[in-house]
Amino acid sequence: MDRIPILKLGEALLVTIQVDMHDRLASALEEDLTARIVATGARGVLIDISALEIVDSFIGRMLANIASVSRLLDADTVVVGMRPAVAITLVELGLSLKGVKTALNAERGMAMIRQAAVSSLIGTGDEPAAHETAESGDLRGIDGDF
Amino acid sequence: MSVTVVPITTGDDVVRVRQEVRTQAVAAGFSLVDQTKIITAASELARNTLDYGGGGTATVELLRQSARRGVRITFEDQGPGIPSIDQALADGFTTGKGMGLGLGGAKRLSNEFAISSEVGRGTRVTITRWK
Q1: Rounded to an integer, what distance in angstroms lies between the CA atom of residue B126 and that of residue B131?
Q2: Which of A33, A84, A110, B87 has the most C-beta neighbours closer than 10 Å?
């Protein structure tokens, strides 16, 4: 079976999606990525989708799942390289990819991951690190219960 | 006029539908954004046909009406049908594991949208986008 290669780049894992995703490939990627996060202690996952001609709700859901699972494993996910036509189509489709961080290109995405890793090192156990308070509504909801 | 029928029985067939729609959208002279919109709409509906209709077909047509060019795709299945089409078109409605954006999203991405469904007989969805 085909698998999508996962490269280690400093504290981050880099995944370049170049092929048309189908169900098995998507779930294999999710499993491989989570295993690699745990094995390497990576602080971030960079997903390059610049080769993707479309992102439909299936791929959107896969990206959102990877972001959620990675977050539980203490790694930030940043999706980079989205084509302009894909962004326009996603908005019209109604898919806002809440909870998925994006950056224009791999360089900016790596900077985001590095920044998040640094601020989580500075933050003490008592208060949430800066990148956590900036997360989407569901996390803030959890904070509110404290 | 070019007509291609693509069977939809596996996840790989969804990819094949996208490729055929891209070919026809390029032949119709669509802009990159319009190509992306119609391919994405077709991808959503092909997956619906597979996941909810139990498989079926996608018929991809290149349309020429005088100076106008367009692409029409018809998805047909002999699945369980949709009891409430209004409900199925609403964003966020899903009976499966999806996000519930497929039908409504595909409608927004198309210029023309038609759906007919009979419970126990199947569903037919037609989308058209013009250049």
Answers
A1: 17
A2: A33
